Fold Flagellar assembly factor FliW.
Amino acid sequence: MQIVTPRFGPIEVDESTIITFPRGLPGFEHCHRFKLLHEESPTPIALWLQSLDDTEIVFSVIEPARLAVQYEVALSDEESALLNVKDPADLVLLLLLLRDIENTTEIKANTQAPVILNTASRLALQKMGMRCQLVFSE
């Protein structure tokens, strides 16, 4: 399938790589299908979560480890079923990045509501109210 986005132009999307948020994202409940995009680099820093339902919507995301943030995630039975979790090793966390409203040159990560992605089932959800731990290595 092909989509045309304002940010990336035309993109060919392999349907087997589509990520589905069964509940949508808070504030964007109409968006269920997304494609994870990255820059052509061996180790991209940020990724983009491009909506396929509304191509005007794209979120910058980052892996928590890149920010020295760790989580201990506890999913409810309902959340595990929604993500079709068979093996916890298939779960990946991503943080949404946002621009500070008061200081538009500053970018912050939403550490209290990570996206949990099951890489095996390609199902995801945003888990609200999480607590993270900052990890500093010497």
Remarks:
- Residues 2-134 form a domain with the BH3618-like fold (CATH 2.30.290.10).
- The chain has a mean pLDDT of 88.
- The CA atoms of residues 20 and 123 lie 5 Å apart.
- Helices lie at 77-83.
